[in-house]
Write a structure and sequence with these properties.
Helix content: 40-55%
CATH superfamily of the largest domain: Glutaredoxin
Structural class: alpha+beta
Largest sheet: 4 strands, mixed
Oligomer: single chain
CATH topology of the largest domain: Glutaredoxin
Distance between the termini: 57 Å
Number of helices: 6
Radius of gyration: 21 Å
Amino acid sequence: MLMKLAMKMTIRPLVLGLLMALPSVSRAEDSLNPVLAPHARDFVSVQGDQIAPFKSDEFLKARYTILYFSAGWCIDCRRFSPSLVSAYDAQQKGASRFEVLLITKDKTEKDMLQYMRHTKMKWPALAFDKVAEAEDLKKFYSGDGIPCLTVIDQKGAVVLQSKSDQDATQVLKQLQDLLATNG
């Protein structure tokens, strides 16, 4: 009897502690975007004159992420990208932010690097050699030309999407409005 009581007193706090810890463990896993997390090791960014691996810890926790289908050879993309770079750079630290992931339509890695450097993209790209096999990300492309912006939330659900190269600016504005009102 005494042993049973001692076990209950030892096990009960242990079980309660585990139960209390589970929600925070669950939240930590849930905070990583399930669409992007499987590709995180394949993210790259411009560092100096080259492409280098990108550390994606905070990136994967963004409230919204723009999947930016674009290419340096595309005139409309080159026309739109400075607006996206300005909007990205204008975000205030600590405010509700969006992130961007470039999914290139360029023909070579060198072309992707030149495009990212020329437009001063500070966000990552999916590595050039991984784009062709990223079938799960390709489904977010509207198929109506580039630039194509698909905004996904933290759970990977589509929130906004450009349907033609002409409405990318409108989608960016809608995202900014969404962040301002739901901040």
